[in-house]
Amino acid sequence: MKLGPGYRLSNLSYIFRVMQIRTSLQIRPAVSAAEAVAEDLAAQIMRDVSIGGQLPSEAELAARFEVSRVTVREALKILSGRGLVQLARGRRAMVTQPDGAVFGAFLGSLLRSDPRTMLDLLEVRRTLEVEAVTLACRTASRSGLAAVEAARGAGSPAPRHKDAGGGGAGAAWAPAPGPVDHGVAR
């Protein structure tokens, strides 16, 4: 049997189509009942409960979500691990102020498991920093800029980034020429 170019092309197009279908399918891992309750409860906490507020009892939550108290306990442990609630024996779960410690621990474990993640994190950090500086420049007032100057110290000029134009890493910072209002030169 002789294979012609049309045969190969049709096989290749079939293979590519199968690959497209496989990559377009969203395969979601099975979510446990505790994880589902934790997600719903986290959304309710963010929406309706203030920091320091207490959640309903385990029995009330079990009735509301139509699950067992064991499932509610697991969900509360998940939320405690995320830093959203504080658990104490014999007391209702209390909503806490989330901090960066849990997120930092997550990022640390991510970096330990796959060092290539560092490049992704650096890209995210760069994007966030650029947006933060842009927002700060748009909303800066004269008094705010003066406070930054005072905090920076009059005798120590900030280094200039070598790609920012001008002298390079050792060059002194120079203010924009002309009057500056809200961080934007006119």
Short summary:
By secondary structure, this protein is mainly alpha-helical.
Task: Give the helix/strand layout.
Layout (H helix, E strand, L loop, with lengths): L4 H20 L8 H16 L9 H8 L3 H13 L3 E2 L7 E2 L4 H14 L3 H23 L2 H11 L27 E2 L2 E2 L1
Antiparallel strand pairs: 1-2, 3-4
Helix pairs in contact: 2-4, 3-4
Strand content: under 5%
* Sequence of strands across the biggest β-sheet: 1-2
Helix content: 55-70%
Low-pLDDT segments = 1-10, 163-186
Number of helices: 7
Computed structural class: mainly alpha
What general outline do the C-alpha atoms trace?
extended
Mean pLDDT: 75
Task: Compute the separation of the termini in Å.
Answer: 77 Å
Radius of gyration: 28 Å
Q: In total, how many beta strands? A: 4
Main β sheet profile: 2 strands, antiparallel
Give the ordered list of helices and strands: HHHHEEHHHEE
